[in-house]
Design goal:
alpha+beta, four-stranded antiparallel beta sheet, about 30% strand, globular
């Protein structure tokens, strides 16, 4: 699997923070408290903390609409990392149930030779998406990311100019610009795709998209016109 390249970003006339579920529809929230239970709000801050590496302005807007500070976000991430690395910590599947509650839906899914259950939860910050965890028959978590909510309209992706941050998921880009080749991410919660797409002028170019927790963060141009 190739690594994510470093290259020039495609030109866009506008970069919209509107996503597959905008931060403007986020639910109400209070400040994160280190001594309290780890909640769905805290988990949303964990997702934002990783996305801040690519889109700090979008993350700051979302954080403010959640009603929390940058310090709250850092504290939520610190607590999450402590849970992940605690020798007495819960198994991953149990941890998600503890933090997010009973899944909104549980669906059996087959991926190649693997049979698993897809657990999905709504998150107020992205109402058009669901946080999905794929759990194997032995209870191991195989994958965890944001996906489009059932019945929610997917964005129209025709050119690289349509690929704005937070607008779409890994699966949506892979389908829109097939065949796409997976790229090795820079962290366990990051993915990449390499594909060919037309730019705003209709010129086809090699591109690479980067995703965090399954949500698009940025696209770079990696090759000459084709």
């Amino acid at each position: 699997m190739d690594r994510m390249p470093s290259a020039k970003r495609p030109d866009r006339s506008a970069r919209s923070p509107r996503s597959a579920g905008t931060a403007g529809t986020a639910g109400t929230a209070g400040a994160t408290k280190a001594a309290g239970p780890f909640t769905s709000l805290d988990f949303q801050l964990v997702l934002l903390r990783r996305m801040a590496d690519h889109n700090p302005d979008l993350v700051d807007d979302a954080r403010r609409k959640l009603g929390v500070s940058a310090a709250d976000m850092r504290e939520a991430n610190r607590r999450w990392q402590a849970m992940l690395h605690s020798p007495r910590g819960r198994a991953a599947a149990s941890r998600y149930r503890s933090v997010l509650g009973t899944p909104e839906s549980v669906t059996e899914r087959r991926i190649g030779d693997l049979t698993c259950e897809a657990w999905q939860w709504p998150l107020p910050l992205w109402p058009d998406l669901r946080f999905e965890v794929l759990v194997t028959q032995k209870g191991a978590v195989w994958n965890e990311w944001l996906v489009r909510a059932p019945g929610a309209p997917a964005p129209e992706l025709r050119t690289s100019a349509d690929l704005n941050p937070w607008c779409c998921t890994v699966d949506e880009v892979a389908r829109a610009f097939a065949p796409a080749r997976p790229l090795e991410g820079t962290a366990p919660t990051r993915w990449g795709l390499s594909f060919t797409a037309a730019d705003a002028e209709g010129v086809r170019r090699e591109c690479a998209a980067e995703f965090t927790w399954g949500l698009l963060q940025r696209v770079t141009v990696t090759g000459q016109p084709r």
